[in-house]
Amino acid sequence: MAASPATPSRPDAPRASPLTLLAASLLMDAVAGWLIIARHPRIAGLAALVGGLGLLAGTAAARRGRERFAELIVDRLFDTAILVPLAWAWRVPSPRLAGLALIGLAASFVASYERARGQSLGYRGRETLGYRAVRVGLLVGGLLTGWLIAALVAFYAVTLGAVAVRAWNVVLQERRSRAAHGGAR
User: Fold this and answer.
1) Cβ–Cβ under 8 Å, residues 103 and 156
2) Backbone dihedral angles phi then psi of residue 6, each to the nearest 5 degrees
3) Which of 18, 21, 148, 150 has the smallest number of CB atoms closer than 10 Å to its CB?
4) Around Cβ 184, how many Cβ atoms within 10 Å?
5) Which residues of 49-70 are buried (b: 16+ CB within 10 A; e: fewer)?
6) Which of 134, 125, 14 is nearest to 79 (CA)?
7) CB of 58 within 8 A of CB of 22?
8) CA distance linking residue 82 with residue 105, whole number of Å
9) Which CATH number fits domain 18-179: 2.40.50.100, 1.20.120.1760, 3.90.580.10, 3.40.50.720?
10) What pTM value is reported for the model?
11) DSSP string computed for 33-77
């Protein structure tokens, strides 16, 4: 009798831990960054694709504690490994592209900070796998196709959209909290 697709055929088969996936992602991100600096963006796109898939798989598998913390760090490092080398390599031939890369990186860090700060203050908020997949896809797609400026503009728009949604989410939660407590807070 054949095993169903939902169950593995070998239950004792080793599975990669979230930390292993995230470490592999970091390695491929570093390779992608080096390839960008060496002016091989399409090959860097392939390395970034592998690194991004590792990040997404690690994100999906991470549950709590050190896995969750590592996932958040690797997510920031993915953006840094792609955007900083882009800014460096294209600073002279395309200052516009370099500026967009730095602005995108800053927006990414602001969005991450906003989520973490809101959670530390007791507001609900999270960074979904879909949001990460879109950000990874935009950067990888830009590298693979050569449409870097369009990809960076879209990355910036998605990231600023997340900032706006998170800010609005905090406002709504605060309003609900004040209404539930009769305005006393």
Assistant:
1) yes
2) -75, -20
3) 150
4) 5
5) bbbbbbbbbbbebbeeeebeeb
6) 134
7) yes
8) 9
9) 1.20.120.1760
10) 0.84
11) HHHHHTT-HHHHHHHHHHHHHHHHHHHHH--SHHHHHHHHHHHHH
Cα torsion 92, 96, 102, 104: sign: negative
Domain ranges of the chain: 18-179
pLDDT surpassing 70 at residue 9: no
Residues written for the chain: 185
Distance CA 23, CA 25 (A): 5
DSSP 11-25: TTS----HHHHHHHH
- The angle at the Cα of 55, spanning 52 to 58, to the nearest 5 degrees, equals 150
Which whole-number Å values give the CA distances from 98 to 6, 63, 105, 142, in the listed order? 45, 36, 11, 14
| pLDDT one-digit tens code per residue, 60-77 | 887 777 788 888 888 999
pLDDT tens for 123-169 read 888 778 899 999 999 999 999 999 999 999 999 999 999 999 999 99
Provide DSSP, 113-149: HHHHHHHHTT------HHHHHHHHHHHHHHHHHS-HH
At position 100, the amino acid (one-letter code) is L
